[in-house]
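Researcher: Re-running this chain for the archive, since the previous output was lost when a drive failed. Same request as before.
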Amino acid sequence: MKCFCMFMLVWLAMVAPTSAQTVETAAQAAVPAPKRQLQALRITEAIKLDGQLDEPIWQQAPIATDFIQQRPNPGPHEKHPTEVRVLYDDANLYVGAIMHDVSQDSIMRELSARDDIGNSDFFGVFLDTYHDQLNGYSFIVSTGGVQVDARYSPAGGEDGNWNAVWDSRTTMRGTDWLCEIRIPYSAIRFSKAPEQLWGLNFMRQRKRDNQAFFWNEVKPAVDGFVNQWGELRGLRDITPPLRLSLTPYVSSYVNHFPYQEQGTRNTSTSFNGGADVKWGINESFTLDATLVPDFGQVQSDNQVLNLSPFEVQFQENRQFFTEGTELFNKGNLFYSRRVGATPIGFSSVSSQLRKGQMGPDGERRPGEAVVSNPGVTRLLNATKVSGRTKNGLGVGVFNALSNDVYATVRDSVDGSRRDVLTQPFSNYSIMVLDQSLKNNSYVSLINTNVTRVGSTYDANVTGGLFRFANKKNAYAVDGRVVYSRRRGNKFGSEKAIDDQDGYKYQVGVSKISGNFTWGLNHGIESDKYNPNDLGILFGNNNISQGVYANYNKYKPFWKVNNLYTYFNLNHSLLYKPTRYQNANVAAGFNTTFTKNFLSVGLDFDANPVTHDYYEPRQYPLGDYFVRLPANANVGGYISSDYRKKLALDVNGGVRRYDTDDRLERARPRRMGYGWSISPRYRVSNQLNFRYSLDWNLSQNQVGYVNGDLDESLPDDAEFRKNYPSDVLLGRRRVLTVTNTLSGAYTFNNRMSLTIRTRHYTSTVNYADFARLGKNGQETLVDYRRNRDNTFNAFNVDAVYSWWFAPGSQVSIVWKNASSSFLEANEATPLYFDNLNNTINTPHNNNVSIKILYYLDYLMLKRKLAS
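Model: Regenerated structure tokens:
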């Protein structure tokens, strides 16, 4: 605690203003810069997109220049000028930019895959087409011609998963580099007004000096981004076009797994076809639909050994569910992996098998066995309609359909087969209304619904959200109220669902701009609140409250470029019954040194005794909890300069617990250790490698014994007699090691090859066991079954991608995957034994090719007309 007190004194000393001049400067830094204006020039002759900017009309357009630095030192004007001009016609917006520099050697230009800038200079244009100062687009081009695009919204922040079809070219000219961008109106949305007023900003990155500049100054002490853009004027008589495109696809797969079973083929093939449709219903709203989707080429999930009472949340890699979903993510009520997820009856198939039995002749007759049990629900289609009116009302509608899913089981005697339903025909839908207000504020209404055919339950969640900021954008209040409703029977049962009605609310007040910001929050999640049919929640039944404070210095001082600090204090109670759960205090800082751009950070947190009501897996919550002794953690990281060919990230931490002497013999002290090292090496502007090693060790951790109890074993039968009132806890050592190696070779700005290899191993070794009673009481027991286990997972994802035309792509993917779960004497904590086991475990190999071809109605119409 002495270290923490010292840290707080230093933190308070930094927060306290040192002079009247400091206060004045901080106040000025929290006021948005005046909005600059730029006139766009209408053209009647075609522009050749070649990155040359040699058409005479470019010289007639007004110039945007004198960019202002945003990092690492906010405020200074650029020394190497940037000149930007904007043209437009009836179909496109054109942006031409000249970036002056010292020499070509000063212009960094690493090639990378689409949506990845890499170690390169870049130029970007930002558009707020409804001028609501909340929502916008960005179109960014690196010196090598690599394109990056994104959308901005209060709900999703920067959404880099959004992709548009646009075109660009870059060239080098003397000591300068040039960029020419063509943005078709079909790629953006805007109103039908005869004269348009758009929000506008430009950005330039000079990677050599790690500098970023904006045409309209963006102050880091001001809350918000889109509200700090300038204005584009002069757009007249442009009409939102008919936005209609079709992207058909064909794909083929070859899959091999060495079953080595009679009657089962090791190799299988498949051929698929479908399409994505995009239709601009009007100038504001767009319909996106995927018909017979194929997501087989997405990156493999990072499988882990899950010892917690909660599910693992996996990253969404399917483009349809990552692109343009900012409205549907309002309130965090939508977890897209629920759509097409593991069938709800996947794990219950084994309980429906006919068991083996003794025949009248005294011989045992085998029962049924599972032949196939699909782990993924195949979607029939998915559709979303989204947009925002000229008055700032955002509307989003999402709908998806999945078909019945069946497992197949086979009778071991006569070979007959039957199907077992694991997922009924289901409809998933979301409705969102989001009204943008002045001062970076909004109110929203969200509804999610899952309807399933048959007697199993349906689910509905409705939430309201708000955020109101004052005129100076200095303070804000926010909150939400959510109601969950479930009706019907549990899947495969006649028993009604037991959490039919639940609610959640949260309110907060905060200071949002300036060097010093703070906030207070309070919330409740009732014991019956459950949004998990289309959302994700790890634990309900909570009353939580917290306070935070941040003090940031954005301008260089001493030997550093900036300083970011934080302080959090949180407290949590069980909602029903109202009982203490935990408290937490945390603080930390990070900064970047001026000369070598070395970034460092330090974090600290402390927790008094915690009552974990979820770990015992006993419901309803309240009687059983696992007691965690008071503990504290110190951690930090170091990250070197990514501009260098060789860069390194290192982080680590240590958590120390108080001793636990409640039992007849004191337990050894719990400890937690973790560290990771991640070097990256850039061989050239086209080839790079990254490696990551993560190592985590928990010693004398006490938790629920993972794995099922087997009634046929005497030790387990003792606990099964009183199940679920008896809970078996184990003191264990958990060692987890993850190795990830990736490499990328970029042929040009439209063609790349990437490969990612990951090996994960986690080993659990139990030392002793205890029976958990009510109110956290533990009694050591003589339980002798070997519960040690090891989980290994291995994946290779290799992807060749070629964007042969705007919006059109050929991708060839190879996936190699294997996993194993070893128990008792087979489990081993030795890393190379686990690696050897992984290599010798049967692997699934999958090779696929997929071809997308983008067809735009307006483009086809122009070609046919000519």
